[in-house]
Amino acid sequence: MMQNYIETHLPQYPCVPESLLETIMECVRNRDLGGTSSTASDGNAAAAAGSGLGHYEYFILFIVLAISAMTLTWRADHQARAASESFFSSASKHLHALQGQDPIQSLRISLLMNHYASMCPERADNWTAIANAVRIVLDLGLHKGCPQALGPEEARRRCQLFWVTYGMDRGLCACLRLPLSFPEESITTQLDFPTDDILTSVFATGDVEKRTSANHIYLYRALECEVHRVLHLEEDLQKFGHQDIDSWLVDINARLQVWYAKAQSYTQYNMLEFKHVQYSWLRARIHRPTPRLRTRTPEDRRIVLESTLLLVEDYRGQEHRRRLFYPWHGVHILFEAAIISLEACWSSRDWEPLRSQATTMLDISLPQCVQLLANIGERWRVAGTCADRLRPLVQNVASVFSHGTTDAFDLQNEVSITEEIHGLLFSDGVLTRSQPPPTDALWGFEDISTFPDDLFFEEKDFFEWNPEWDIIPADSV
Q: Where is the Xylanolytic transcriptional activator regulatory domain (predicted)?
């Protein structure tokens, strides 16, 4: 299970050094369980000689196993989820008992919690975790590069941590259509494309291309962020080297195509598994109605319908294969995909060239999308609420396509549907930094006095593996 994380997930989301995980596992194998004080740094993973692992190391161990277990649902769904939940419970207990961690450790904790929250939003809040990570990054100035006094390895790790934070933060801001946590212009830290020699010193196994998968994810987040800035935040096009929106649209589509073509090369490593979703999703977002371009062309609507159809098919495949690993993103993507495809259908109801495509969307794909949300809602209530919100609207629009306008369906009802779709399309209001985020919403880890008492653990309650969770042989865990 740890190997699954190291080989597949760590290169894409390098939140912790591989050497730290290897040292922790070595201590666990040796049953070096003495002491629970947090005394280790990332450079020297285990606590000083004789003192064993601390709360920080145990948190890292259990949260990584919790993440890894959730990606093994395709082997045994119930067992994987039960194991992940128990791992997370153990990680939480160590986290709440942790004191005296340094800012880099706190940053790693936040990033790992964000990763887990994207997989299990019913148990953890990714917004809280990433808000804390951004606060630490800005406090340390990681977006500005590293002091020359730091050694090259420490500088590389800090640069790496910044870009992991950047990718997670930008993905969340774009998905929720929020103002950026910090402006792009403030970033001077360069995205590092290391040489083969450096890569070999960082990762013990795998191909060079596999080890650079994280950079390709960051490049996608940069594209996603640019679309958000231009079409939703309505920033000046000259910042992006364009004088008009049409030339920018051609350019961003071309760059997305280049990214997607390169992403295919990671398939052999089981990485960028959701590249098809990412490509179709951003393509749909480029062509949907936005604050900058509220009215789109029939060709834009055709692309939206084509892209959202592929999105629904991909997520249905993930569900069928039991590989829908990131329901937080899935729910937000599917909900918005349903809304923009409804708008494309509704705006095309009198446009014969798109009528067949729109009818397929309304009769087949959108009901499947709503059902996907309802299925996810069995674990995460928010998804069920999204399904309930969409279901009657989908039925109303489909009814118009099936029966046309009749005496029973007057102009007032048509206006009502138009207004409802428009309200869902532009539900954000003005996206500005008019107010800073409330400081009490940030997760600082410093004060644990507000946590419920039952979250703390007794040393005798150390984690025990349940034989029913044997997703893979015990000696591989």
A: 126-198
